Structure formats: C-alpha cells, structure tokens
Amino acid sequence: MHRLPRYSSSILSVALIASPGVYIWHTAGQQTNTKTTNVMTVGPTFQTLFAVPMTCDGCVKDISEALYKLKGISKVEANLQDQLVSVEGTVAPSAIVQAIQATGRDAILRGTGASNSAAVSILESYHLLGRKPIPAGPSDAVDEGARNVRGLARMVQVAPSLTLVDLTLRGISPGTYRATIREYGDLKDGASSTGPIWASKTPGSKPRGLLGTVQVGKDGRGSAFLDSPFQVWEVIGHAMVVSKQDESDGKPLKNDEDTVVGVIARSAGVWDNDKTVCSCTGKTLWEEREEEVKKGML
C-alpha cells in the first residue's frame, strides 16, 4: 500500500491505496478539532455496503470524514470505480445513510453482514383494508391501494445468537410504539391475522418476539437500533408489527392508522448483491430508489 498525504492536519486520518481507485481510511491516533456525533450503536461490529455516486478523491475525503464523525465507525473503504462505500462499525445503517446524504450525496444500502445473515421488512399500514377498491393487476397487487408504507426494518445477525434491528418509521402519530415479531406471516387481514407475539422456546418465559420500543416525535418520525437474541433464519417468513396497541387483553391486533406490519424476508449480505439494473423492470437502482422514496420506504 502507498500512503497518501494527509488532507488535513486537524483530522489525523490516513488514506491508504489498497488498489487503484480503492481508498481505505483509518484514524491515526487522537483526532483534534473534530467532534464525534452520538448515533444509534449496538453490540459487535459488522460490515455494511452502500452504493454512493462519487466522482473524485474529494468525494472519498468528504464521505470518509463525515462517517468518522459518527461514534462507532472503525473503518471506511471507498471504491471510486464501482461507486461503493464499505463501512465497519457498530452504527445503524440508517444513520450512515443520513451522514452520507448530509455531504450532498445519496446512498443506497447494498448489503449488510455475511451471507444469509440479513433480513428486511417493509412496514405498511393496513387501516384502509376493505375500504378502498382493489386495483386491477396481478394477484400480488391485491389491496395495494389500501396500504401505505410507513417504515422499514433492517436486520443483521452479528453473533450466533444476536441480531440487530435498525428500525425507521415515518408518517405516524407521536408516541411510544412497541416493535414485535409475530407467530405468523399471514397479512391477509393485515396485523389482525399475524397471530400472537412470537413465543419463547421455554414455557412461561418472555416471548422471543418482543424487540423493544421506539419513540415517534411530533414530526411523525422515529428510529431505534435494537438487539435481540435470535438468529435471522428463525424469523424469515414471520411478520413484524410496530404498534401503540395494548395487547394485554389477548385480542387480535386492529388495523388502525398507527399500526404497521410487514413480512420479514431475506436480504443481501455484503457483496451478495452486485446488480445495478433490475432484470424485471429494467430500471437502475437509482430509479428504483426514487420510486421507493415516493412510496415512503426510505
């Protein structure tokens, strides 16, 4: 590796050229005049990979410096040729995306953790289910018009029995919400058909599906970085629900405006997903992102 000149004496970091167009940034001792930002961090370190539009070494510098301001980032590697940024640390992927966007660039999460260790759930509100006409189209589009995307949960397994959950919500009323994994993945009747909270292996013990709480502010947005003792494969196909509802009466959940639900599905690990154009739609990943943003997914 060849060492590059330091960009700034106030930020004691060093860029190492691993191969042409690939820059690995490490902190080199105590930083001065640079404050770290406290963000959501949990548990052991893990790797995340992001697609980021970059045109020059200056882009690498700006992004790397912005990420190292987040407490919990241990390594940043940028590849100009492939337009990818790899990050290692304990910071929630959603916080990393926000930090990159703050530099004036966009970012798309391309993978998290090792192969078969990541999952995702798109959280939707079903409160209009049965009230709106069913749109014409394929069977998997049934009642799509009656659903509104209100959040996203990303999961990554970082230890044999520890999974981190990066949860973001938007467009719901302020308050305290409880995140849970349910026994079933049946969304035929929205949250009402997902069954009780995923039970413990040991009778009488705390249900395994209790993830934790998230606070939603007056702007209708909330986020939480939670950890739970399960393996990703165990929850694939189950539903995830985030709701204010009190379930102490044992009755099924209702589909109100502040209850969101989605099925947990596998997602790509780091380096598992190298597509830049969708084979189904022919759209680039950036065109797909624009549609996701309009739907409220990101």
TrEMBL record:
Transmembrane annotation, as ranges: 7-26
Co-factor(s): Cu(2+)
Domain HMA: 45-108
Keyword tags: Membrane, Transmembrane, Transmembrane helix
The keyword Signal belongs to this UniProt entry's keyword annotation: no
Function: Destroys radicals which are normally produced within the cells and which are toxic to biological systems.
Family: In the C-terminal section; belongs to the Cu-Zn superoxide dismutase family. Belongs to the CCS1 family.
Record protein name field: Superoxide dismutase 1 copper chaperone
Biological source species: Phialemonium thermophilum
